[in-house]
Amino acid sequence: MTGRRNSSRERILVNAESIILEKGFHATSINDILDKSAITKGGFFYHFDGKPGLAVALVERYLVQDDQLFAELTEQAEALSEDPLHRLLIFLNLLAELFGRLPETHPGCLVASFTYENQLLNEDVRQLMQQGLLSWRQMMIDKLERAGGAYAMKGDVSIETLADMFTAAIEGGIMLARNFGENRYISEQVLAYRAFVRMIFGADQPDSLRPDSLRPENPVRKS
Fold first, then answer.
1. What angle in degrees, to the nearest 10, is found between the helix axes of 184-200 and 84-100?
2. What does pTM read for this prediction?
3. Exposure check for the chain: N or C terminus, fewer CB within 10 A?
4. What is the CATH number that goes with domain 1-48?
């Protein structure tokens, strides 16, 4: 019985996220979610206390998935090198490859979507989104500080700003991918960030850590 309850809850969350990314949080009704999830209103309210509770659950789920993904990529990178800068560069390569392999255009970022409708959300959701952004920042600060312990930084840029550029690169790449229908824009933004990190840390040697398959080509935009 518990497995069935969890299954229906996850089905609601998956479908709600899909609709919200397409229509926006305010324009998405509970009935939209019920129809797509093939669930009764009673079934919905068994799991959530309405749209505010649903929003909290969606952001929590989204952030857990991000944490798991970044942890897996970090583990892979750490298995491939002991050098802290190389680990960071490999991590970014792996992330770029992952975006490039997505079978369909990236559906968008739930946190970004909610941010656009920030005034419609309660404080719990706003706090969760802020915590998520701070988590991304701290993850990158940790990686960058370890690299800075082995390589001297060039230029007048703070570690915190460099960490926030990671988020900006991904979110900007997702926006481009959504508009042009090609996930390579996300990969290219991640790789551009990676190139900037290499430059900041003075990694002047040939970039043997970057696969030829990810070298950017001249972009051909869809008309």
1. 170
2. 0.85
3. C
4. 1.10.10.60
Reported confidence tier of residue 6, pLDDT bands at 50, 70, 90? low
Sequence-ordered list of residues with C-beta below 8 angstroms from that of 88, at least 6 positions apart, any chain: 77, 143, 144, 146, 147, 197
Class in CATH terms, 52-214: mainly alpha
Rg (alpha carbons) of the chain, rounded to whole number: 20
Q: Where in the chain is the domain with CATH 1.10.357.10?
A: 52-214
Q: Check residue 114 and give its pLDDT.
A: 86
In the chain, CATH 1.10.10.60 covers: 1-48
